[in-house]
Amino acid sequence: MDKAQIARMLEEIGVLLSLKEDSNVYEQRAYENATRALNGLDGDIEQLVKDKKLKGTPGLGPTIIKRIEEAINTGTISFLDELRAQTPAIKLQMLRLPGIGPKKINAIYDHLKVTSMAELEQACKENKVAHLPGFGKKTQDKILEGIDFLSKHTERHRINVAEHEAEQIRAALATLSEVVRLEVAGSLRRRRETVKDIDIVLSVADNADDAIRMKIMDFFTSQPSVATITGKGTTKSSVVLHSGIAVDLRVVTDSHFPYTLHHFTGSREHHIPLRRRAQNMQMTINDYGLFKIVEGKEELVPCQTEADMYAALDMQYVPPELREDMGEIEAATRYALPDLITEHDLQGIIHAHTTYSDGKNTLKEMAEACIERGYSYIGITDHSKAAAYAGGLTLQELEEQWAEIDRLNAEYAGRFRILKGTECDILRDGSLDYDDEILARFDFVIASIHSNFQLSETEQTQRMIRAIENPYVNIIGHPTGRILLERAGYAINLEAVIDAAAEHGVCIEINANPARLDLDWRYVHRARDKGIKVPIGPDAHTLAGLDDMRYGIGVARKGWLRASDVPNTMDAETLLRFFQERRNKKK
């Protein structure tokens, strides 16, 4: 049980309390504050609890500390379970609709008595929702859009949620002495942004009997996170976790492991041309092996690893992230796949928020957390003044922040560097929220859209391109504004945006927040080929948010990025020169 998971549980308690008719607003706020406080803590939560270090933390009262301790000791919070059981299912479902909060959910439930999303959709189509107090046709249309969006993404889970669940099970299985090799496979291994289920492949000794296999399956199906067993055998067992994610475990002999791992890593689109290549070489490939056809008979080609399999097909090893039939087969046959970026290549963080705007930690806390993680700089990008909802900075507040940055940089004396940045709002007409005189004083500028999502594709594209044309803009932030599994991005012509960014020497970020992962990996490769540099930024609002860089790395690798394609693999001085040279070139 980690800090992020417990924070989500506390946040859910606060939301469920707000759905109760007799809810206490102060109790709701206590859990909202506790969520922020927990996200702002650094260090391992289990160790903090063990050392009794939570007491006295602002925002964490005695009752909530007990809830945290319960979560660590039992994997759940009984109060949360009670609230879930007491809350009508339709209210829980409506929480997933973008732009509809607890008050509106309660109003719909109380006035229309809907019990399913289908009934809610029908009520919207009959114009009943629009006539509720405080609603109107615009809200009704948004609800219909949300229902349609959810129906297209049902049963999918963000990568961070699936990864957490998979790692818990993988770590537990790894403790068994009978296990030889063990890997999480499927779309999670390929670092897809959302996944439907989790695949795990495990090997035992070639002479292992069914009793050993069944012991492993018994252990797997009895894990605390398992809610339901949907299938159980000696080679495959399937469960559904409390989180709703389905997990399949396959147990094979170790000599079959690489073939099975490769098969269940996928993707289907990658396998089809790979099998075609095998056939052209008088070979066949499946989850049982790679076989050479000799005189009409299949002979196993012994392989210890997946790399051996690709080598047998006279190909460069294809990393899992690239197995999407996006040109990797052709490149691998020419031994022309790129040397993909890794987390170790990163030297600093770009795109992070502090208490100066809507971040939960101070400048120094964010800097110290980066030092602990081995980074040599952080680019602070608090919001501009138009983002009043997020505590956007006035010029006076900017001066105060810059002065503090200067003091801290003097204190660090070269061992760490804080860069002066901003996440500046792109206004409706494409102009920026700060004038050029102020923008010129930043080390770098991220320009992002946070409002007027409803503009047409043409208007939104022109708006973005105008921002790109500003000589002080270095980076475009989260270019589509999407929130995975919650809302689609605004309508925009990304090809035109990428072309404009390439023309004007502007970077486009990969926002590493697992709710965004924007720029989408399908466009990252195009941006790279256009010569655009693609920084990876966590959009961190908490200390824990800094660790989201790993998800951005996954997107970067899926987009074929090398270390040289990512600006924050540079040291601080080189990065600052890079930004300044780009500005000078544009001007």
Automatic annotation (TrEMBL):
SMART domains reported in the protein's UniProt record: HhH1, POLIIIAc, POLXc
Domain (Polymerase/histidinol phosphatase N-terminal): residue spans on this chain: 348-428
GO terms assigned for molecular function: class I DNA-(apurinic or apyrimidinic site) endonuclease activity; DNA binding; DNA-directed DNA polymerase activity; phosphoric ester hydrolase activity; zinc ion binding
Helix-hairpin-helix DNA-binding motif class domain segment(s): 52-71, 92-111, 127-146
Keyword list, A-Z: DNA damage, DNA repair, DNA replication, DNA synthesis, DNA-directed DNA polymerase, Methylation, Nucleotidyltransferase, Sodium, Transferase, Ubl conjugation
GO-annotated biological processes: DNA repair
GO cellular component, one term: cytosol
Cofactors, names only: Mg(2+)
Alphabetical list of SUPFAM superfamilies matching this protein: DNA polymerase beta, N-terminal domain-like, Nucleotidyltransferase, PHP domain-like
Boundaries of every DNA-directed DNA polymerase X domain copy: 1-324
Purpose of the protein: Repair polymerase that plays a key role in base-excision repair. During this process, the damaged base is excised by specific DNA glycosylases, the DNA backbone is nicked at the abasic site by an apurinic/apyrimidic (AP) endonuclease, and POLB removes 5'-deoxyribose-phosphate from the preincised AP site acting as a 5'-deoxyribose-phosphate lyase (5'-dRP lyase); through its DNA polymerase activity, it adds one nucleotide to the 3' end of the arising single-nucleotide gap.
Family annotation (PANTHER family): PHOSPHATASE YCDX-RELATED
NCBIfam families named among the record's database cross-references: PRK08609.1 (NF006375)
The protein's name in its UniProt record: DNA polymerase beta
Taxonomic lineage: Bacteria, Bacillati, Chloroflexota, Ktedonobacteria, Ktedonobacterales
